[in-house]
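[audit] Reproducing an earlier prediction to check determinism. Same input, same settings, fresh worker. If the tokens differ from the archived copy the diff job will pick it up downstream; this log only records the rerun itself.
[audit] input (265 residues):
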Amino acid sequence: MFDQAKLLKIAELDSFMVGQMNEEQANKFNLAAGKFIETFPAQEAKVKNALRDKNIAAVKNTMKAICEMLEAIYANQLTIKCLDRLNDIKEADYDDLQNHVIECLKLFSALSIDLQMVEFGVKITPVPKEPDMPIDEHAILAVDDVSFFLSQIKSMLKDTGYKLTCINSGSSTLNYIKKNRPGLFLLDIEMPSMDGYELADKIRAAGHNSPIIFLTGNASKSSVVKALQAGAVDFIVKPVSKDQLLERISKHIKPDPSLAIETEE
């Protein structure tokens, strides 16, 4: 079941319609949202395969099918944004079609994850704070094995009031947090040797309870549940945009306008 008050905090949903739901409508919403969560990963894969094959008809038909599910959960503006542009793009403008569809899929994936966070809840096991290691509340530790993504994050967070440290492995992260307590962790899930789930578990076990945001491209239920169990409080869907990055981070820690960005390797 979906908590109605928490659903109102999801920007992509029509707050008026969600807020006015009676019991029967809420039951229909629960069924429709559950169907969207369960079927979206397969639909997303179908769209991406059709893009690869340049099967424009299949792309548009599958996107419309996804949008029908979105209409049933009152994601009205997101549906309009997707369909209006989709209908305007001519078949000859394949690059425009591909860019628009990929952006829409990213938004759909983020909505699916947000719905799952409402459905399954976010539970953080409290851990004791070490008095000799105060939390640096404006500091972010970003961990990703791909230097390109770390460079993107550095650029996006430049002069935004956060102190950023970038690390490219789980083992280096565990060494870093022995002497530092960042205010927020930004972890990639897909990493060799130690993935984001295992790293999050070890961060919590080491006594750190700062928020953990996962970078992901996977909206499947099993992936989201596993991340929540590992201590995630939020997700950012790849490819990362600056607006999304700042919006998600600011939900959990606030910037200090006086701070110039700091980076470390």
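[audit] rerun output stored. Observation attached for the diff report: Strands lie at 136-143, 163-167, 182-188, 212-216, 232-237.
[audit] end
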